[in-house]
Q: What sequence folds into this?
């Protein structure tokens, strides 16, 4: 690496940062990805059918092999929602997901759909959904960007059977504010008391979609190969600190290697707490605590990972609005949402989280409980913004991109200041529709051609 050069720098190695780098490499060859992520935690959001098709189109149109072959890195990963003790299993085929929702929560389809649905042919319904999301993925990648995402693009390409079901869903979901609340928190990564028609249509597509788990190691290794072939460089050093000059992040210092002079800096979703940045906003937000418990035994011997998301009415908008649990063998991993406070330590939340998870486990296994033999807790690095809407009534809400949240640099004297060369994409920036909006923002880094 040439010390005399300044580099466009991406903080954090993940598949989203590689996607960012491909657009940036079309503008300059001095692009570096810093990989100092030493924390590994097996809970990350799934990939849905529409987003999978956007990535496939991305790879096919621009000849990026790992994206073109995205299916080879995916594994079907169903998930259970437990809502006020009622369990619904999602993440399988569209027809199976719809059938399960109609059995367990018929009211979210205005209680009029079950009898007509079961006359539909499973293969035809699945094909309609897959053809629709494949075509929509192509349209979004080739012709749309983040600011002009709109409901019309989705609806005008939607087959009749899916559109008619959505109309019932839109009517019925207003009767179950907890179900809608959880869907927006899980699928769109925000805590919201209301939803536009567009947001609900996106939720509906996610509910029908298979859930895919990405083989992150293989996928990211292959993306790294493509990144290097395109002229990009990796830096595996552990960041010691950062230096600022004026209102720019100027230099990144490492423990055991020469410093890196930064030109523009791009922050991948969920990495800001590890660096000298703070979120500057008056908006309320949630972050998460990640926990691992190891037991002598569990009531069920899980040979494959079991994924469960839990919520209840008394948790809506309160501490721990929902939690996600994964079980394998005798080990439990959990991610629990907690109010975001600058400087908060994991010890502040430990007792409340333990009590909440014991309640959650009661919904899974009844009265079973034993003390874990190993325990590990650490603060997570994602944010769920609280959307400023005052009531739970669906009403008439217009979809609009949320305001960008400012990320400030922190000097050695702990002073906050704005950074002109720091760019944040996703998670708590302009994100409105979860991973979909993040992908659209990243796609827009490409130079206009």
A:
């Amino acid at each position: 690496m040439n010390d005399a050069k300044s580099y466009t720098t991406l903080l954090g190695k993940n598949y989203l940062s590689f996607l960012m780098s491909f657009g940036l490499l079309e503008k300059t060859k001095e692009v570096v990805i810093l990989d100092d992520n030493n924390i590994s935690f097996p809970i990350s959001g799934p990939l849905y059918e529409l987003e999978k098709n956007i990535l496939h189109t991305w790879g096919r149109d621009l000849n990026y092999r790992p994206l073109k072959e995205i299916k080879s890195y995916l594994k079907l990963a169903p998930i259970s929602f437990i809502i006020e003790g009622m369990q619904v299993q999602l993440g399988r085929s569209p027809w199976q997901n719809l059938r399960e929702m109609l059995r367990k929560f018929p009211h979210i389809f205005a209680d009029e759909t079950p009898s007509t649905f079961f006359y539909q042919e499973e293969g035809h319904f699945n094909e309609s959904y897959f053809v629709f999301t494949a075509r929509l993925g192509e349209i979004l990648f080739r012709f749309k960007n983040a600011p002009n995402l709109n409901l019309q693009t989705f609806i005008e390409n939607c087959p009749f059977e899916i559109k008619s079901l959505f109309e019932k869903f839109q009517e019925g979901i207003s009767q179950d504010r907890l179900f809608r609340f959880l869907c927006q928190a899980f699928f769109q990564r925000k805590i919201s008391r209301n939803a536009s028609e567009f947001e609900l249509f996106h939720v509906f597509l996610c509910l029908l979609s298979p859930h895919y788990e990405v083989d992150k190691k293989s996928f990211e290794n292959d993306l790294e190969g493509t990144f290097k072939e395109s002229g990009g460089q990796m830096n595996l050093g552990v960041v010691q600190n950062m230096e600022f000059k004026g209102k720019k992040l100027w230099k990144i210092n490492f423990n055991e290697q020469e410093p890196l002079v930064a030109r523009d800096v791009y922050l991948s979703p969920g990495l800001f707490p590890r660096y000298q940045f703070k979120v500057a906003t008056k908006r309320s937000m949630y972050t998460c605590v990640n926990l691992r418990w190891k037991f002598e035994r569990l009531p069920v011997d899980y040979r494959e990972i079991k994924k469960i998301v839990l919520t209840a009415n008394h948790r809506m908008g309160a501490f721990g609005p929902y939690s996600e649990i994964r079980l394998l063998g005798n080990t439990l991993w959990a991610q629990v949402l907690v109010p975001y406070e600058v400087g908060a330590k994991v010890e502040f939340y430990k007792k409340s989280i333990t009590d909440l998870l014991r309640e959650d486990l009661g919904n899974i296994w009844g009265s079973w409980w034993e003390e874990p033999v190993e325990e590990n807790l650490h603060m997570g690095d994602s944010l769920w913004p609280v959307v400023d809407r005052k009531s739970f009534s669906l009403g008439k809400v217009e979809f609009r991109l949320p305001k960008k949240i400012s990320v400030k640099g922190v000097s050695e004297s702990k002073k906050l200041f704005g950074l002109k060369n720091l760019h944040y994409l996703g998670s708590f920036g302009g994100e409105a529709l979860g991973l979909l909006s993040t992908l659209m923002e990243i796609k827009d880094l490409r130079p206009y051609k």
